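Known limitations

Files may contain more than one protein. Parsers should not assume a single record per file. Below, a two-record file is shown to illustrate correct handling: read the sequence, read the token line, then continue until end of file.
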Amino acid sequence: MTKFIDSIHAFECQIFRFINSHFEQKILNMYFRSVTHLGGATYTIMACLFFIVFMKDPFQLAGIASGIALLLSHIPVAIIKKFYPRKRPYLSISDVNIPKNPLQDYSFPSGHTTAIFSITIPFMVLFPYTILFLLPLAMSIGLSRVFLGLHYPSDVLAGCVLGTTVGLVSVRVIEGLI
């Protein structure tokens, strides 16, 4: 079993290295350094508050569902990071390209990816046409975390699954209330 897990980790490290190896490409670097912040606390909270405060139904309802999902998704991220303290890849893999002052907390799961999927999924479910721009945005933010050397691909995948699940649940809860 250990050999199997080691081979999966080695494969994941290969994927990580491939994505991170493009760090020196200026346009990609500029794009990913910019888009990654959209998954951070400031932007995700502000986006939810904007729709809750300034929009009318049905967009306000989507904002409420997104806010609930963002709040609820943060709890398992904090718990998992505490009980599964996975080091960030730049601390475990040699010759990783990273921005100045990288994050110091644990890697699994990706909080940025969890947050962006948790707030975009309600919009994608309630307004399917938004998939055309919200899904590529959310995927870009997840990919940026690997590109910047801050997360393994499995961290991002776990964040995507967690954020999507909580986003879907929050929509069902909101729909049950109306």
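...continuing to the second record:
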Amino acid sequence: MTDTRQVASLAPGTSSGSRIDYQLQLGERRYPVYFSAAGIPLSGDGEALLAMAALGAMATDTDLRLPGMLSPQFLANQRQLMQTFTGWFARYRPVSITAQALVSRPKAATGRVGSFFTGGVDSFYTFLKHREEITDLIFVHGYDVALDDLPRRQAISEMGRAIDQATGVRFIELETNAIRLFKDFGRWGLHGHGYGLGSAARHLADYLDRIYIPSSFAEADLMPWASHPQTDPLFSDERLEVIHDGCEVGRIDKVEALAADPLALAHLRVCWERVEGSYNCGRCEKCLRTMTSLEALGVLKDSATFPPRVALERVRALVMYDDSLIKFARENVRLLSARGLGDSPLARAWQQVLERPQWRNRLILRGRKIRGKWRRVIRKIRNAT
């Protein structure tokens, strides 16, 4: 019988100085992908290639045949990760993974420990918790900040230099265009960013002994999610230990931990919005929820990266369409109540959002989508005339 299954086309990474380039084809889609980092030895090996290709392979039912060497421990871990992922999400299918050669490649310890770091609540918490051992913080340009968002990228670089100078911890700036490889085959938050971080981690396997991935949720709130304590450690092998960190506490506990730290209050960055000249926009859901926590703790006025007050009209305009957003909002309401602010205008604004029925939320989102479409049409007409 003829084997008619699709097989991904995966070329080994080609290194040029501090940059590694790849060519991947999954189904009908071809992806030129690169990772770069000034002054850091990157590992463009079979483990990195597998981490990049696995999500798309599961989405397109495409088998993976890796060129070159692959760690047998990493292969076993990735097969386990694939079983977990396909059990969580019906849109994915387990596929065959083979390699040209299976070789264990232990390395001499470097003594370096890293942590992914965006400047947000989760990453600051992990940094402060492991401050004595962390030697490197890693920010990935091209993930939550777009490569062409130059003002925001400059602000991130300045934050990194300030933290480096204040603590002596090295701030590594990875750059990659790999996000399309994950977004084309699922939602970034729900499906893709765990593989995105795993891919970035594998590029540092020759430089670091261990790397932390800060958690998104507390243990009690865990759900199928791209970055998870069951899946993140499966990017480990004999050369690199990957640890999912911070599930022992909730987001409010993390904010309380960093609220007393001047470094965190000076540099806290949670915003994904692209607003010219703004480090945090102060208007999006992530900004408003973080500002609410800081206000409840009495330190919003001391934060250098947020507006001095929470705009109640912005809170009331929020739409809670996702279970994770609802959990975070309820945590804030509980915190406000615990601080004697349960009947404050801010608490009532959040409660109003939580009590709004989902049918009305859907209508609001539909209306905003239609208005946004018409605004874009009007702008095009005006630009054309």
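Parsers that stop after the first record will miss the second one. For reference, the second record is described as follows. Residues 272-364 form one domain.
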